[in-house]
Structures are given as C-alpha cells and as structure tokens.
Specification:
Elements (H helix, E strand, L loop, with lengths): L5 E8 L3 E9 L4 E10 L2 E8 L6 E9 L2 E9 L2
Antiparallel strand pairs: 1-4, 2-3, 2-5, 5-6
C-alpha cells in the first residue's frame, strides 16, 4: 500500500449512480475531492497524485449513491 507520488485506486460499480472519492488526513480534515460524477455499471480506476501532501497516513472514502467505504493509504516521500 505505501506509495510516494502516485497510485491507482480501482473500484467497481454495480449500478449507475453518483460516485464521490474524497481523501482525508488522520485528523478527519478533507484534503482533496477527486471524483464527483455519475458513472455507469462497471470497473474503473482513478489515478491519485499525492502532490503537496506530506508523508503520513491518509484515508480515502468512496461513496456510491448512499453506500460508502473507507480505506487507509500511506504516503512515503
């Protein structure tokens, strides 16, 4: 899971809906929003570039319609 500058985040959608991908730091502060659009059924992936973020633990939250999941990621620079 650790990465330095960029990583790919894969996801699967089982039904058409509004998809949001947000990145939070360990304090719960929103540090970026990368997807916020309607997508159809299928497999997708999005590239995440850590840009100006410092090394540390972050969480990405993927929301599709009213369902969401959160995963941890580690940035090492």
């Amino acid at each position: 899971n650790p990465f330095s500058n960029q990583t790919m985040i894969p996801f699967h959608i089982t039904a058409r809906g509004i998809v949001k991908l947000e990145i939070y730091d360990v304090t719960g502060r929103l540090v970026g929003s990368f997807i916020n659009k309607e997508l159809s059924y299928g497999d997708y992936q999005t590239e995440f570039n850590s840009g100006d973020l410092e090394s540390g633990i972050y969480y990405y939250k993927m929301s599709i319609n009213n369902l969401s999941t959160t995963r941890k990621m580690i940035i090492l620079k």
